């Protein structure tokens, strides 16, 4: 009953009894259609009851639930748990993202709005972004990429820059990370297994497509929507009992990816700015992921529709949708990036910033280390300032070099220990045995002191720094 009490009984005789028996008073309950919609959330407030002659005589096993939120909502695509799931199931790792999104906790799927409680960016930082032309470039090109060596703050800069924009206007920001397995089907649209309740899916489709006349008052629309919801539930109750049967229908449904969804939302809310942050954009096959949409993301092509591969429907990229990417140049040189991508994005280079390293000794080590890397013609593979920014003492410096910086250099120079010894010194790197000299990496004060001393000596800029005298 739409207007009934908030304390209702929910029955589960068709649900797996194991998890039903395990559930207890005060446990949270999510009423989910098994696909992409949440109908309600609530809390179990009563113990187990066996109601043999209840009006719902097909549902004898019951526990009382107080429904605290009955707003129906769509689940974002990247929150959906994978695979087929029982009708009543205890949450596990596969549903963590969904639960976090539903209850507003820290989450994988990021949405930052100007009216949402987030840590605001530093106003001085926002002013710096303006002076450096980041805003002007984004508004002109509609999409930009921050690129540079590891540890130069590309992802952090992208997020802070987006939050700066959210301070000035209503803004929704979402984030995705590209990787070699990421595809067009994840990003734009693709077919997914529909699960067993085809009838429930059809009910959603039919009733969601009912458009109410605009001349109706809000009260009338609300009353009609209540009736639609009742019919929807009746259909789904039959669907759960296997009526009707749709065995001859496809077991796959076409689902929208994050980019298609953002395009749709941006079109429907032209006064809101939508920003998609794509981290590690060059780790995916960009041309394959964007598909036909790569031709219409440019500013002068915005609003021009293209026909999508699977749905055969037109889609265009609205002008209020922006893309901010990050690119690690140590993984792939900018020269190797697809020409079509380079032409359609504005590029902002982020290099190691010594001013962010406050400790003068560590700042000198970073400066001299990167100078040696530059001497090897490896500009894109310098060490970023983030490796040194938060170092508190020589113990942390030694640890960072052993477990982060040296493995990175080994990868850069293909384990060429002659070059490594040339950069870090022949005492720290045992060139003949092709390994580290472990005496400089022991966990004691004497070893740390010797490590810093030998490292500083090996990295010393002999042209610009005076020689030590006895």
Automatic annotation (TrEMBL):
InterPro entries tied to this protein: AAA+_ATPase (IPR003593), ATPase_dyneun-rel_AAA (IPR011704), Methyl-DNA_Rec/Restrict_Enz (IPR052934), P-loop_NTPase (IPR027417)
Residue ranges annotated for the AAA+ ATPase domain, each copy included: 140-355
TM ranges: none
Molecular function GO labels: ATP binding; ATP hydrolysis activity
UniProt-listed SUPFAM superfamilies: P-loop containing nucleoside triphosphate hydrolases
Pfam families in the cross-refs: AAA_5
Record's protein name: AAA family ATPase
Protein source organism: Marine Group I thaumarchaeote
Taxonomic path: Archaea, Nitrososphaerota, Marine Group I
